[in-house]
Amino acid sequence: MLKRMLLIAMLLFAPAGVHAANYTDVYYDTAEPGWGAFLVQSQTFQFIAFFIYGADGKPTWYTAQLNDDGTGNYTGTLYAITGTYFQNPWQGYNINPAGTASFTPSDVYHATLKYTVNGLAQVTKSMQRQTLTPDVLSPGPNYSGSMSGAVAGCADPTQNETPFRARYVLAVTQTANTSASLTFTFVDTAHDGLVCTISGPIAQYGRLYQLNGMLTCTGLGNGGNPHPAVIDAFHTTGQGIEGYLTGANGGGCNVSLHFAAVLNFNQ
Question: CA nearest 111: which of 54, 46, 55, 61?
Fold first, then answer.
């Protein structure tokens, strides 16, 4: 029944084709380990399961169903759930509205969680994605992928590309869980000969990485001088890798590019 309710809510409140940043992960307050929230997102709908404690110090079960309010913040109803003792034959459960909840991202890694339960004072917590284990960003083969976004603000207007669309082969190297380097060798007709590398330290937040480094591009009039750049929401997928690259690229150019690639398994 709970799964059915969740599915109905997603169908009702998640319009087809809507794109939103995905915050699926485990979240916790770094100053208060021992409790937290599991968040799963589908389009603009979020389902949150709280693992918190009641006044008696015992685990208490709550969930929340939240929807994007149109500003990138998520609000909705908090539910209290009771059910059958796990060693007994299943006799059902009860789910009742018990308050409100909101999830307000400050970036793709951090958020403020607010909730009320049964009329008690609002609880406000600063949370971040909880890292479980390091991820492997460079399993061996190269990747093949596409990139889209914009190159704008160039001193030479002919260098602007809005929109920017390109295909590439991507090589990723990773040093433990401390740094990474990505080299994009472009292969589409419009960008053949362009090679861009971004290298720098990485920080892990749950299932995502952030890379703060320097971007260097050569070919097609690029001089090869490094410029600051960042890759956000950088992570592996079931078949490859993806992220969001922003920064400078010389000549006054600013880049804002989403990229995704699949593994080349048969090299």
Answer: 46
Q: Are both 2-129 and 143-263 of the same fold?
A: yes
Give Cβ neighbours of residue 113 (< 8 Å, ≥ 6 apart): 27, 37, 101, 102, 103, 104, 123, 124, 125, 127
Q: Which residues pair with 164 in a beta bridge?
A: 149
Tell me how far apart the alpha carbons of residues 146 and 186 are, in angstroms, rounded to a whole number.
9
The pair of three-digit structure tokens given for residue 24, joined into one six-digit string:
């699926």
Residue-wise pLDDT for 18-66, tens only, equals 456 899 999 999 999 999 999 999 999 999 999 999 999 999 989 999 9
Q: What DSSP state is assigned to residue 141?
A: S
Domain 2-129 CATH assignment equals 2.40.128:
yes
pTM: 0.85
Fold of 143-263: Lipocalin (2.40.128)
Domain range summary for the chain, segments of one domain joined by +: 2-129, 143-263
φ, ψ of residue 156 in degrees (nearest 5): -95, 105
Query: Does residue 3 contact residue 18 with C-beta atoms inside 8 Å?
Result: no
Q: How far apart are the C-alpha atoms of 90 and 228, rounded to whole Å?
A: 58
In sequence order, the β-bridge partners of residue 88 are none
Q: Residue 255 above 90 pLDDT? A: yes
3-state helix, strand, coil in the chain (%, to 5): 5, 55, 35
Question: Do you find a cis peptide bond into 228, omega within 30 degrees of 0?
Answer: no
